[in-house]
Amino acid sequence: MFRRDKKLANIHEIREALAKVQIWRRAPSLPIFCPICDAPEFKIVDRSARPYAEWYAVSCGHCGIDDAISIPLCPQMNSGN
Q: Where are the domains of the chain?
């Protein structure tokens, strides 16, 4: 199953990929299964620019997904005191 479109196609796929990112963050040494094709070739690279955003590059060698997910983080507001 190799996809022509290498991007996550809809909000369902993005949510599934984010769930896999959460699993990976808790146990980075475990194999992560692709949310699209369920192959154990899902790779996640943390490219975050904290405290501004979390960025994750995600890819799968089996189905061809190669995308990035950005999660903007709310900056802390100074109280002005």
A: 11-72
